[in-house]
Amino acid sequence: MSWRVRTKGDVWRFTAAISAVVLLGSLGLRFGMLPPDLAARTLVPGSAMALMLAAPIAWFVGRRMHEVHRLGTRLEHAINHDLLTGVHTRKAFYERAGPMTAEACTVIVTDIDNFKGFNDHYGHFAGDQALRQFAAMLTANCRDGDIVARFGGEEFVIVLRDAAADEGLAVAERLVARVRASAIYHGPQTLRLTASFGVAALPPGGDMDTAIQQADRALYRAKHAGRDRAFLYDPGCDNAAIPMGTAAE
Questions:
Q1: Per-residue pLDDT tens digits for 182-233
Q2: Does domain 90-232 sit in CATH 3.30.70.270?
Q3: Catalysed reaction per UniProt (predicted)?
């Protein structure tokens, strides 16, 4: 039997279940080992004693199991989510995205424009705040079934489940405008950022890495076209093989 004590209510249910098992075991032993008249005379005090011993112990064990579950949940979240931004890590991205390749999806690769210069000029604290705010905007504009992951530095990858490429481009263009319009407050200063986006289709049964590379090439083109924009992958324009992460800031 496997007990999963996820909530405080589960603690009380665990306590009640264990207490009931102990009570039934006590009754079985009493009537199985004692003469019937003696077993009947000791039924109430014996049952009360069994419950007085079992209930506190079961409650204590249930509380510990609940705490273990909470710690396990936190650990799993820490392993699968980026500590700074709260979005998925690269490893968690591939674990979660694997089953999604069975349906049509859209992949978006994005990063913050000129982020190295921003970080050097305003400091790492402002840079971290910019990354957190950027990740929050990406997440807020995605559905629960979509994936947002930080692949490293200022580069993020999004998978839009059951979305055509033109829908993904519309999402990316909306994000371009929202990033441009959002303020980052750094002490008395109000700072602004822009971001570029590359979009590619992932057909059913397609290869995720191929779609990511295509979106990265579209991102490269967006950077070289002036940044602060979103482009859809075009084989005619994006035919050069550009490794992930080489898009100009």
A1: 988 877 888 889 999 999 999 998 999 999 999 999 999 999 999 999 999 9
A2: yes
A3: 2 GTP = 3',3'-c-di-GMP + 2 diphosphate
